[in-house]
Amino acid sequence: MSGGDAPGMRTAPTEGSATAPDLGLFTVLQDDGTAAPGVDHGMSLDLAMRAYREIKRLRLLDARMILLQRQGRVGFYGACTGQEATPIATALALAPTDWVFPALRESVMMLVRGFPLRTYIAQVFGNSGDNQKGRQQPSHMSGRAANQVSWSSCIGTQLPQAVGAAWASKLRGDKAAVIGFLGDGATSEPDFHIALNFAGVYRVPCVVICQNNHWAISVPTSRQTASATLAVKGRAYGIPSVRVDGNDVLAIYSVVSAAVARARAGGGPTFIEALTYRIGAHSTSDDPTRYRSQEEVDRWMQRDPLLRLRRYLVAQGTLDDGLDADLEKTMNAEIAAAISEVEALPPPARESIFDDVYAELPWHLREQREELLRSQPAPGHSGG
Amino acid sequence: MSTLRYRDAVRAAMIEEMERDERVFLVGEEVGHYQGAYKVSEGMLERFGPKRVIDAPITESGFTGISIGAAMVGLRPIVEYMTWNFSAVAFDQILNNAAKIRQMSGGQFSVPIVLRAPNASARQVGSQHSHAMEHFYAQVPGLKVLAPATPADAKGMLKSAIRDEDPVLFMESETLYNVKGEVPDDPELLVPMGVANVAREGKDVTIIAWSRLTHVSLEAAAALEKEGISAEVIDLRSIRPLDEEAIVKSVRKTHRAVVAYEGWPFGGVGAEISDRIQRLAFDDLDAPVLRVSTLDYPMPYNAKLEQHVIPSVPRILEAVNQVLYRS
């Protein structure tokens, strides 16, 4: 284990023999619900309980959103089920001034960092409650108030942007760290190489986190790379790289906190591979039974981050069945109320489609808008 | 007023804007220590230091994406490509990110970035280095595309571009870098986007051009004058936004139009202009609108063949004679 800030204590690894990115896996939460002895993971029980609530809320929310899609009430959804620990523990390790450049399964970080649930759900409906004005696909949320940008569906393009934002932070000396996310599939994209290369050369305060969930839609990681691990790739760019148990809230919190602290102190970027598993489909457009076995899914269900954290909190005396049931009831009610309130909102005003193409409305779009406003609204569209 | 070459005018614009606004920086291949592949950024590293004149690893999509990220959080990058041809590997960042982030985010984020490089033919550099890339980019809502022909416009429009809140693609030309012209010294004198310039007044025919072809068209107009034909040359300067009004106004006066530009004939900016003229000035036209473009062929290396492929004075004259029904 590498040395940490406090002598004699084990802290999150940056890069060391026991956690060599090609071999090791940094884990804190043990199967019996205890934390590995002698590891200073830095996460208080209060914060661990907060993480539990966030994971639970997301799991309930994801299930409801998929249901809405199946009922034809929303168009698309990409759930985070099974891999909630990494985005949520990461969000809890950040300061409000830090930036998030997410991939498909990290939208929730905005919620954890204070973005309102109703506006978040409105983005899935894409109606007048949506701060993105009904323009972006669901699971591509963004909120400036939460310092989180939208993901681009073209895989990996957010990574150079994350490095650029980190570079801006370095040039300005404003101490903000930037977190860029990707999945295992995106490690094959040129933008992954670009981001790590620039991050290493410019030594920017950026933490690049790869959620290796083992499947890029139907392509297993073994068909994505012949490399034994993804974490080892960071080494080629001269970047400290860590492989962490992505279903272990304590381990992720500790690794990300260390990486962010180093970034803030001017120590440059870190690459983190978080080993996890996508329990559900890639998105509502996907059927995973066509390419992977239920036996594999069942095996990973045993490593469910929610169950593992629950076991820990119960062992610590922070959580019990009654409290858990109450929590679930309250959250389900909160989500249901938010959905019914948001679903009732009208679509965005039809003339709003011409806004935000440019900073100022150009004359040709102004003409098109006037033309649109002279025509009858479509049935059911009260806007405009 | 000072007499400057086109490359010095581009540099002057960057220097003035970087002195005015500390958020502005320049990044690209060879822009620093090497002083720029075409010496456009000569002396700028020494003036502003390596934090604001940044030599990038060779990855166009990389420094484009990085600059987009920096712009999203408040900086104002100028990205130099060695040529616009190389922007092809950054196309996704330009098309799917720079152009759309404001719209997709509901106006929460903007990308005030300038992408600049020499564009189109550059004398015997073959098919991969001779593309007129404005045709690809001008189609995209969310982008602005400028192609000034003179040193004064290069300076004044680049300054407008740097101060703009949207992504602006600025198309220079290797063949124009040594062109000299009078350039205003006043650092607050900007040339607006979307306003064409009447480079030469005339009454018999309108030749619409931009960038290098403005100069070729002016040559053609001089030759026509000797034959008693008065040609008006409209230098668009700005492709998107497009000064439709200036085009229509001129065609209403001359009743005949030729569009001269580098780039292939299939689709593209020339076809867009022809469409607008026939739509907006149909009753004023005395002849079909003709286009003089690069031939529908990848650019050859051989100098003679290249001259055959790119638009030239004789081909413009031929088109003008056709719209005037002169044989």
Description:
The complex is a heterodimer of chains A (384) and B (327). With 384 residues, chain A is an alpha/beta fold. Chain A has 2 domains: 45-343, 3-Layer(aba) Sandwich (Rossmann fold); 350-384, no CATH class. Chain A has helices spanning 45-70, 85-92, 108-112, 117-125, 158-172, 190-202, 232-235, 249-264, 294-301, 305-315, 321-343, 363-374; strands at residues 99-101, 178-183, 206-212, 215-216, 219-220, 241-245, 270-275. Chain A has a 5-stranded parallel β-sheet, sandwiched between helices. A two-stranded antiparallel sheet of chain A has the order 4-5. The longest helix of chain A has 26 residues, at 45-70. In chain A, 50% of the residues are buried. With 327 residues, chain B is of the alpha/beta class. Chain B folds into 2 domains: 2-183, Rossmann fold, CATH 3.40.50; 197-323, Rossmann fold (3-Layer(aba) Sandwich), CATH 3.40.50. Helix content of chain B is 36%, strand content 18%. Chain B has 12 helices and 14 strands. Chain B has helices spanning 6-20, 44-48, 60-72, 91-98, 101-104, 134-137, 151-163, 212-226, 244-254, 268-280, 303-309, 313-323, and strands at residues 2-5, 24-28, 53-55, 76-80, 114-118, 144-146, 168-172, 180-183, 197-200, 205-209, 231-235, 238-240, 257-260, 290-292. Chain B has a 7-stranded mixed β-sheet, sandwiched between helices. A 5-stranded mixed β-sheet of chain B has the order 9-11-10-13-14, with helices on both faces. In chain B, strands 1-8 form a two-stranded antiparallel sheet. The longest helix of chain B has 15 residues, at 6-20. Chain B is globular and about 60 Å long. The interface between A and B is large, with 48 and 42 residues.
